[in-house]
Amino acid sequence: MTNPAQLHGAPAELVLDAHAELAEGPVWDDVRRVLWWVDIKAGRVHRFDPAAGSDTFVEVGLPVGCVTLAEDGGLAVVSSEALLRFDPESGGMETVATFDPGPVASRCNDGKCDPLGRFWVGRLALDRVRGAGTLSRLDRSGFATVLGDLTIPNGLDWSVDGRRMYFVESIERTIWAFDYDLATATLGDRRPFARLPVAGLPESAVPDGLAVDADDCVWVAVWGGGCVLRLAPDGTPISRIDVPVARVSSCTFGGNDLTELFITTSWEDATPDERAAQPTAGGIYRARPGVRGRPARRLRMEHRA
User: Fold this and answer.
1) CATH 2.120.10.30 fits 4-303, yes or no
2) What positions carry a catalytic annotation?
3) What is the Cα–Cα distance from 135 to 132, expressed in whole angstroms?
4) Of 33, 155, 271, 282, which alpha carbon lies 20 to 30 A from 247's?
5) Is the pLDDT of residue 305 over 50?
């Protein structure tokens, strides 16, 4: 197997020293030319303008798992209790759909729209109880659980043709690939696409958020591994971007031509010594790996009642 330690590519540079405990869910807004991202535990939705170097945020008041763009120009914000429509211009928020309380205290994690604008999101137990997590899809009647018996549901995205869905279960250190029926938004056969750790990475490294580029390769943030890996369509590691922070949480392509990879990081659960050694943990990084990404897909509200 190829050793990712031998695949170092373009270096990552710090573009926002945010000090977020758990920066996650980066989404490039190709209309406003800004990066939306969340600080999950702080319950904040951030708007980072790379051209100006400015970052502002909105307090949601609850943990926020992720955001997604909407076709009407707004955003959909996923709190621990509900999917909220957010108007960036007025600052207004309204509830679109709520989550069932469930048997244990939970919050949302990663989420994304499929190629036709149907929204998927993972939920996990706050105390990481094994098997208490789910992956749900927003339907006309609300959120429908598609996969259960999960623990840390994480990054997801679709192949260029939309016929394969990638999904991370971090506790299993596995990126799964599902056959995907675009017409019905249903999952088919599941198979392992890639597993961590691989050579050159710590035994504790796990996959986190991911993004698929225009060449159908998968970029996955490696939590505990201080890097983002690029995987070929067959799951083989083909390049690596190092980040000077161990807890790398997610990534997305952005910039005017979608050739910039924005990378979120975290200091969650870090020891005082780790924080001292990694003072920029919780910051936003950027790399230019020489490939192009794809525009973020927008939530289509007609999939709702």
Assistant:
1) yes
2) 208
3) 11
4) 33
5) no
- For the segment 184-199, the average pLDDT, to the nearest whole number, is 92
CA–CA gap between residue 16 and residue 83 (Å, rounded): 27
Spatial distance between the Cα atoms of 144 and 227, rounded to a whole number of angstroms: 34
Q: Which two tokens stand for residue 50?
A: 């790379």
pTM of this prediction? 0.94
Q: What are the C-alpha distances in Å from 275 to residues 19, 244, 283, 295?
A: 10, 12, 12, 34
* Domain edges within the chain: 4-303
Q: Please say if the pLDDT value at position 9 is more than 70.
A: no
Structure token digits, residue 115: 């190629």
DSSP 211-237: EE-TTSPEEEEEETTTEEEEE-TTS-E
